[in-house]
Design a protein that fits this description.
- The structure is a single chain.
- The strands form three sheets. A ten-stranded mixed β-sheet has the order 5-4-6-7-1-8-14-13-9-10, sandwiched between helices. A two-stranded antiparallel ribbon has the order 2-3.
- It is about 35% helix and about 20% strand.
- The chain has two domains: about 5-255, Thiolase/Chalcone synthase (Peroxisomal Thiolase, Chain A, domain 1), CATH 3.40.47.10; about 260-410, Peroxisomal Thiolase, Chain A, domain 1 (3-Layer(aba) Sandwich), CATH 3.40.47.
- A hairpin with a 3-residue loop joins strand 13 (about 390-400) and strand 14.
- By secondary structure, the chain is of the alpha/beta class.
- The chain is built from 13 helices and 14 strands.
- The longest helix has 17 residues, at about 75-90.
């Protein structure tokens, strides 16, 4: 048997630009920002008042009330995005073997809102008032668990947590399971809902997030000299990975192919990236080797691009180290400029952006890039989307703990 090819047959997205892939993509290409003053909780005593909220997400539109009560917000996002991906992929109860279908989903934190709410209830009302649903709602593996129940996927499932690389790590594992003939399909990607009082407070204490409270739409500024940190956001990006021949037999839409992936660890600092980008470079090099490609074959890089001072410079150095002369000609952009940083969900949403770029032959812009940092001197597609032939894309995700992943997709 030849090498099993892995393709994408369905996608679902919940983002600050909208609760569907189409709304997300249209807003992204139009150069809109999903960053606003936070509305869901009181923030007057916070240092940071801005974030990427999914304001048009209504849980009751995606899940019945009884089931929804058993889910934290991060799980509701995952459930809705997986349902959309399954619908696009044309899944029915009789066109796949449930024992050959799995779920590998990334999340960096899990049910943070539930932890906060139940801890307050414990302090204010006592232990007998803590909800019996607390553990099922907060546990990180609730996402893949509920998706498996929704779709009757009976194969392997797991929650992957590698901070901001979580979705990338989950997708790499999903790809390998299909390649190795363990399963025929995996629902994968990532989800996160850490935009809470504790989430904001903790990242602000680290001085990791932007304090541009008076100008939310321009707060996320990857590669710009005036960037002051990332903007914390929420959402989910979920994709159905499927073996190529299996997808063809089902008559499923084939949205793109996963050619390769790479992963590495900085082993440098628990939160700061290797300043020379050596771990990120190894991840990209491994993805190119796995895909049997040369750097000049890549048409577009969806950068990790968080708008942190050190991170953007390190990623730029990594691209230069691996791409050589091609680093000056490859188009690069950061979708986090428009939607902020979705932590463990970022890689899933950004993989969707990379696939949509190939589908439409349009490269989404890096908005708010008014004056590039002198050390960030590559083509980041500033402010305006660009029409271009996009056949092969790379998507980077780098996380606290030094975790790095890179995935390569091809139009098919």
């Amino acid at each position: 048997m030849g090498e099993r090819r892995v393709v994408v047959t369905g996608m679902g997205a919940i983002t600050p630009l909208g609760a569907s892939v189409e709304l997300f993509w249209d807003g992204l290409v139009a150069g809109h920002s999903g960053i606003r003053t936070i509305s869901r909780f009181e923030h007057a005593d916070q240092t940071v008042h801005i974030g990427g909220e999914c304001l048009d997400f209504e849980a009751r539109e995606h899940v019945d009330v009884r089931t929804g009560k058993r889910m934290d917000r991060f799980c509701l996002f995952a459930h809705a995005a997986a349902r959309a991906a399954a619908q696009q992929a044309g899944l029915t109860s009789d066109n796949f073997d449930p024992h050959r279908a799995g779920v590998f989903l990334g999340t960096g934190i899990g049910g943070l809102r539930e932890i906060e709410e139940q801890h307050l209830r414990l302090l204010r009302k006592g232990p007998k008032k803590v909800s019996a649903f607390t553990i099922p709602r907060l546990m990180a593996n609730a996402g893949p668990g509920h998706i498996a129940i929704l779709l009757n996927f009976l194969g392997p499932s797991a929650s992957i947590s590698t901070a901001c690389a979580s979705a990338g790590s989950a997708m790499a594992n999903a790809c390998e399971l299909i390649r190795r003939n363990v399963v025929d399909m995996v629902m994968t990607g990532g989800t996160e809902a850490a935009l809470t009082p504790l989430g904001i407070s903790a990242f602000a204490a680290m001085k990791a997030i932007s304090t541009r409270n008076d100008d939310p739409p321009h707060a996320s500024r990857p590669f710009d000299k005036d960037r002051d940190g990332f903007v914390l956001s929420e959402g989910a990006g979920v994709l159905l990975f499927e073996e190529y021949e299996h997808a063809k037999r089902r008559g499923a839409p084939i949205l793109g192919e996963i050619l390769g992936f790479g992963a590495s660890t900085d082993a440098c600092d628990i939160v700061q990236p290797d300043p020379e980008g050596r771990g990120a470079a190894r991840s990209m090099a491994a993805a190119l080797a796995d895909a049997r490609l040369n750097p000049e074959d890549i048409d577009y890089i969806n950068a990790h691009g968080t708008a942190t001072i050190l991170g953007d410079i390190a990623e730029t150095k990594a691209i230069k180290a691996i791409f050589g002369p091609s680093a000056r000609t490859v188009a690069i952009s950061s979708t986090k400029s428009a939607i902020g940083h979705l932590l463990g969900a970022s890689g899933g949403v950004e993989a969707i952006a990379a696939i949509m770029a190939m589908h439409h032959n349009v490269i989404p812009p890096t908005i708010n890039l008014d004056e590039p940092d002198p050390e960030c001197d590559l083509d980041y597609v500033p402010n305006t989307a660009r029409d271009a032939r996009v056949t092969i894309t790379m998507s980077n995700s780098f996380g606290f703990g030094g975790h790095n992943t890179s995935l390569i997709f091809r139009a098919i």
